[in-house]
Design a protein that fits this description.
Layout (H helix, E strand, L loop, with lengths): L4 H34 L5 H5 L1 H28 L1
Helix pairs in contact: 1-3
Length: about 80
């Protein structure tokens, strides 16, 4: 199996976009937890499922975007 150059470039771009998306989603999760704690709560759903949400928020963009980018570029270029 040969690796296409276009696919590798798209995977690198997808990795970068996935990393940016992960940082944004991680910040939103932390902000939601902090907002709930300031309102006098226990942190709500973000606090209860922090580990699971953190794994999902990391895996989907950081692994999924490069895979989709590689697949799309390979399919388009051939």
């Amino acid at each position: 199996m040969s690796i296409s150059l276009a696919g590798a470039i798209a995977a690198a771009v997808g990795l970068y976009v996935g990393w940016l998306d992960w940082k944004i989603l991680k910040g939103l999760l932390q902000a939601a937890e902090a907002k709930n704690r300031q309102a006098g709560g226990d942190g709500g759903v973000p606090a209860r499922y922090k580990t699971l949400l953190g794994v999902v928020i990391f895996v989907v963009p950081v692994i999924g975007f490069p895979v989709i980018g590689y697949w799309a570029a390979s399919a388009l270029v051939g």
